Amino acid sequence: MSNWATVVLAAGQGKRMRSSVPKVLHKVCGKEMVRHVVDAVRETQGGPVVLVVAPGANEVRQCLGDGVRYAVQEQPEDKPPGTGHALMQAETLLRGKATHVLVLMGDTPLVQSATLKRLMAQHEDSGAVATLLTSDLVPPAGLGHIKRDKESRRILAIVEEMDATEEERAIREINGGMYCFRADWLWPALHRLLPSRSGELYLTDLVAMAVRDGLLVGNVASTEEMEIFGVNTRIQLAQAEKAMRERILNHWMEAGVTVIDPASTYVDAGVAIGPDTVLYPNTTLAGRTTIGERCTVGPNALIYDSSVGDDCKVVASMLEQVVLESRVDVGPFSHLRPGAVIERDVHIGNFAEVKNSRLGQGTKMGHFSYMGDAQVGRNVNIGAGAITCNFDGEKKNPTEIGDDVFIGSDTMLVAPVKVGPRSATGAGAVVNKDVPPDSLAVGIPARIRGRSGKVETNDS
Ligand code: UD1
Ligand code: CA
Predict the structure, then answer these.
(1) Where in the chain is the domain with CATH 2.160.10.10?
(2) Residue 460 binned pLDDT confidence (cut-offs 50, 70, 90)
(3) Are 160 and 213 in contact (CB under 8 A)?
(4) Residue 28: enclosing H or E segment and its boundaries?
(5) Where do you find CATH 3.90.550.10 in the chain?
(6) Dist. CA 337–CA 304, nearest whole Å
(7) 105 CA distance to ligand 1 middle (Å)
(8) pLDDT-derived band of residue 180, with 50, 70 and 90 as boundaries?
(9) Ligand nearest to the CA of 14
(10) Which of 37, 87, 105 best tests ligand 1's pocket when mutated (most atoms within 8 Å of CB)?
(11) Where does ligand 1 bind, in terms of residues with CB under 6 Å?
(12) Based on the number of CB atoms within 10 Å of its own CB, is 271 exposed (0-12), middle (13-18) or buried (19 or more)?
């Protein structure tokens, strides 16, 4: 038997979100709320995780995969089952498997592992049957209020807002919705819950039950205002996003990143940034993006799922699923699309588009150009307005450009086509046949001139 197991409740309908997406899959800083919760648990000794989900819930299963186990909570049409009923669904998977059970909600994305560790440690040390995370740092309306004995200050019950008296509603100490329970007491106790006035089985009623059983209920007070914040509405979703954004930016600033204007800088939870990088305003770093050291990013940069090396500069440009090696500069106003691999010391200027292409070390692509499905060698100069005509109306065709090639302004490279190393194309050339190494291609359609300067045709 392991020491801990964790249950995350995520079967609620989330009606107040008015969404076809399950509530716990709404994202906060690019990551689903329930994943924030499960990831926080992973950093503790929380043991195996059971997620309580609604029937079907395929999207939730897809999101979290096999890393957690699933218990299904049936959802009767007429009455809401409640958090106590939800927790009960994990019993078959966990009874006899752990000494303590950590219970969390799937809609509190700002939960911090350090707080969970504190909660779990106190629970183990105190011998309490239940230990709650409480807070008096938030407006108490809508939350469960902690009722204490007037003299001993011992916890007596959690009173839900709708069942609370005027006096109870004034209590500022509230239930954060994160709990530790001793398993041998918890599982049978759940079966003793009685429906609340709303018909729901409240998990929170376990507290009064423990007190009636003469057992100790403890608490740990949260020290950060937002960590217990639960998301029930889209407005709260935006509030959680703001708090998470601040937390993420503070983390990176403490790690040596300069953020010129945190209010207009958006960094997702899965992003990593090296020290001495500077983020300028209106920058979004999203998905699985990593940024190296000493980069400058923005203003107005959008970088999704990309890897940017050290000493790069990205100004007013969009990158998606792209690799930049080191000392690359991009922009303003360029778009690097999926599959672009840009080797070190490449310069990409304005109005450039690169898709599914590699640009070799030291290549320059300064102005108004498009490389699609192209393998471009080292130290190539791509002139203003040069493009790959990679699509023939049916399929995408490849272009290959060797090292040290000079592509003249406005060259059309009609793929499939190859330009050999050290060759050049003249301004406005329409290259629809392969160009051998060390040659010059000029005209429409392009004819090849060898080194002798003699005109040759490709097909002669
Ligand atoms: C709950 C607590 C309240 C606490 C607050 C903290 C209860 C009765 N109340 O209220 O004391 O202050 O959290 O945020 O527990 N869920 C299910 N199945 C259900 C109902 C809910 O899985 O039948 C899940 C939801 O998906 C959600 C979580 O449980 O992730 C909490 O449910 P919610 O309805 O949001 O509870 P609150 O009203 O916020
Ligand atoms: Ca909630």
Answers:
(1) 234-450
(2) very low
(3) no
(4) strand 27-28
(5) 4-221
(6) 10
(7) 7
(8) very high
(9) 1
(10) 105
(11) 9-12, 24, 52, 73, 80-83, 85-86, 105-107, 143-144, 158, 160, 174-177, 202-204, 230, 232
(12) buried
The ligand minimizing its distance to the Cα of 237 is 2
* Per-residue pLDDT reduced to its tens digit, 311-360: 999 999 999 999 999 999 999 999 999 999 999 999 999 999 999 999 99
Identify the CATH number of the domain defined by range 234-450. Answer: 2.160.10.10
Which ligand neighbours the alpha carbon of 12 most closely?
Answer: 1
- Domain 4-221: state its class: alpha beta
Give the C-alpha separation, 330 to 300, whole Å.
12
CA–centroid distance, 232 to ligand 1, in Å, is: 9
Given a cut of 60, whether residue 457 has pLDDT beyond it is no
Encode pLDDT of 46-70 as tens digits. Answer: 999 999 999 988 999 999 999 999 9
Tell me, what's the pLDDT at 198? Answer: 87
> How far does residue 231's CA lie from ligand 2's centre (Å)?
6
Q: Of residues 85, 123, 251, 367, which has the active-site annotation?
A: 367
Please choose from 26, 83, 163 the residue to mutate so as to test ligand 1's pocket, defined by most ligand atoms within 8 A of CB: 83
Residue nearest to atom 8 of ligand 1 (CA): 202
Out of 132-136, 196-200, 245-249, pick the least confident.
Answer: 196-200
Angle between helices 183-190 and 205-212 (to 10 degrees): 110
What are the b/e assignments for 289-302, b being 16+ CB within 10 Å? bbbbbebbbbbbbb
CA–CA gap between residue 127 and residue 104 (Å, rounded)? 20
Is 367 among the catalytic positions? yes
Query: With the C-alpha atoms ordered 236, 237, 243, 246, is the resulting torsion angle positive or negative?
Result: negative
